[in-house]
């Protein structure tokens, strides 16, 4: 089989542009500053453009890490608020007029307490905390795919910008994570 055909990358090293607005794709790790990043409108042709693009990608990766931990913060707060609501409801039911509930429970096998009010499925889905989580999750998914596509440019410098942004972001926000068994698989 002959694998010496061009794949539309021109005669250069794969990082050069042919001046027609195309985005060549080099499928091997490479260096260079002439790069098409994500779409045709984001082409770097000078070192300055490339450096600012790498800095922007660093910041985007940092923000991605911040977003992950912001979602975790909101989730923990929503769970804590729900637990407080249930505790207050339980406390208000047990603080009512008492006729020795321990003796009643022991004799009759059940308590006279009303069951704790559960939220319906619709109430849970359309609750403000869930809508906020859904919005942040959507943004996080979009950012994760864009970061993956940026890494797939296979440009060492862009890959390094992404890795450093994620690492520095985790350094600043990773201490928030309290449970070592929580998985970050694919996020």
Mean pLDDT: 79
What percentage of the residues does DSSP assign to strands (E)? under 5%
> What's the number of extended β-strand segments?
2
General form: elongated
Biggest sheet, spatial arrangement of strands: 1-2
Computed over alpha carbons, the radius of gyration is 27 Å
Number of helices: 5
Largest sheet: 2 strands, antiparallel
Low-confidence stretches: 1-19, 103-108
Cα-to-Cα separation, first versus last residue: 39 Å
Structural category is: mainly alpha
Q: What string, H for helix and E for strand, traces the elements in order?
A: EEHHHHH
List the keywords.
187 residues; mainly alpha; two-stranded antiparallel ribbon; elongated; disordered N terminus
In words, what does this structure look like?
- The chain has 187 residues and is an all-alpha fold.
- The protein is built from five helices and two strands, in the order ββααααα.
- The protein has helices spanning 47-94, 101-108, 121-125, 128-151, 156-173, and strands spanning 35-36, 43-44.
- Strands 1-2 form a two-stranded antiparallel sheet.
- Mean pLDDT is 79; it is low at 1-19 and 103-108.
């Amino acid at each position: 089989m002959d694998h010496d055909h061009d794949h539309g990358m021109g005669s250069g090293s794969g990082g050069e542009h042919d001046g027609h607005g195309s985005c060549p794709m080099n499928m091997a790790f490479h260096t260079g500053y002439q790069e098409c990043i994500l779409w045709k409108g984001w082409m770097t042709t000078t070192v300055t453009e490339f450096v600012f693009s790498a800095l922007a990608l660093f910041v985007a990766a940092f923000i991605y890490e911040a977003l992950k931990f912001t979602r975790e913060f909101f989730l923990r707060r929503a769970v804590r608020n729900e637990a407080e609501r249930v505790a207050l409801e339980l406390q208000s039911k047990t603080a009512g007029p008492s006729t020795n509930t321990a003796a009643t429970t022991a004799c009759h096998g059940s308590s006279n307490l009303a069951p704790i009010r559960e939220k319906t499925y619709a109430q849970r889905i359309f609750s403000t905390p869930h809508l906020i989580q859904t919005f942040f999750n959507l943004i996080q998914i979009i950012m994760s795919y864009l970061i993956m596509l940026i890494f797939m440019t296979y440009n060492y410098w862009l890959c390094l910008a992404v890795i450093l942004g994620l690492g520095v972001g985790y350094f600043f926000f990773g201490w928030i994570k309290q449970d070592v068994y929580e998985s970050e698989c694919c996020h």
